[in-house]
Amino acid sequence: VVDPEKADSSKGVLLMTTPSRNLNMVGSGSYLAYRSIDMSGIKEIEVLVQVSPRAGASGGTVEVHLDSPGGKLVGTSDAVVPKEIEFRRLMANNPQQSEAGANRRNSGTQPQPRHDFAARMRMSCIHAVIGLDQVQGDHDVYFVFKNPQAATNQILMQVVEIEFRQNVSKPRPIN
User: Fold this and answer.
1) Is the pTM of this model over 0.85?
2) What is the pLDDT of residue 154?
3) Dihedral, CA of residue 44, residue 7, residue 66 and residue 58, to nearest 10
4) Which of 17, 56, 106, 175 sits at 20 to 30 Å (Cα–Cα) from 81?
């Protein structure tokens, strides 16, 4: 699993800090790149994204290229489309973190649970699973975000997490 904020190089990235951090890909052809990843045995990559109509996000596809943004194409996601997030449902089903029992004993009061924002973020994501052509050895891996209909400065999607997998998971719907 790699953190989108820790990409080795990027183009078209807008990092916004609100109550949480949002890494948005802006404009068709924007990308995140990671240097020298051993791709031997990697069969698929899951990219967790959000495409919020509230942010004006247009959606698009995620392409995986080797060694440059225009390098060999080894996989493409299905189209990821805008999806309204049902915040009330998320908050009702959201795992909560509670204070340590020692704090309860020391204070004599029951602390209020805190919402686990990382869990909430994952619950609201679209799981774009990209099957890969067979690749061997170390490569620079580029995730290129595309939507030819998007405006130059339009957000395509927010990237939450990228996971490289050696085993193919059960197919998941992209919705």
Assistant:
1) no
2) 96
3) 70
4) 17
